[in-house]
Model the fold of this input.
Amino acid sequence: MAPISVVSNTLSTHCPICSSTDHQVVRAMCTMPSPLAVPGAILRCRDCGMWFKAISSLDSIKQAYDQEYSENAALSPYMNSTATHSFLRKMLKQVTYQTGSTQPILLDIGCGTGTMLEEAQALGYTPEGIELCRGLADIAHKKGFSVHHGNAMDLNETEKYDVVTAMDIIEHIPSPLTLLRAVHQSLKPGGELVIYTPNHRGAVVILAKMLVRVGVDFAFRNIFGSNHVCFFDDCTLAAALNSAGFKVRSMWKFPYDPRRPGMRMSLANLVIIRAVEELGRPFGAVFRMIAFARK
Done:
């Protein structure tokens, strides 16, 4: 689930979902909490409610996925953990493509070191990947998988795939509709797209927005001051998928797990996040979501 940067050739403050230029400047994020974060102003579209980041240069996105990022991701205990493999297997078992294929082909966008490809192969798929980071693509390729090293905007297949997965990807892309339309073209009729991304109508995000109004910005900076440039919720993600020609079949929403392998967090923050996520669970106000969308 390694992020991949998909960028357009021009920068603007048009909403990435509805193209409106009527927006509110929420906060400038010039000083970032991480050297790999992408600086820019946080905007909220007044027409569709989408939150997004207006960046000053495409170079800031490219720099976020440099050699240092590649090395960190390759060594990530999260990607190689039993929990991650189990989660991906459970998710893939919920896919219900209707292409009629007996040997389904799956493409994983931002395949990283190939964790998704391993699980897909075990479930009977013929897996392929596309990955921007050369080092990560090489690792997946050495595992025996067909992996294209490049930008997902290079995806120009027509009705080839039965399933496309994009895990922790779409929030890193300034022009998500461009990618979604390319994926729609690459899927066979009845094929399914699976997207995993943060839900910014979760209780943790709501609390962060409340705290920043009274001068406590730690949580807000960590959520919005990362290398994410689009901040979806269940409504804006569905709107983007519909605009690209998909029909949302189902959506899972579930709490973020701050205990995942490799995550460094104080006991106090761990307790607070767990408590807030559990409070939001009955209302679907949790920080993670998966959309299953049919072509």
User: Anything to note?
Assistant: Residues 1-11 have pLDDT under 50 and may be disordered. Residues 267-280 form the longest helix (14 residues). Residues 77-294 form a domain with the Rossmann fold fold (CATH 3.40.50.150).
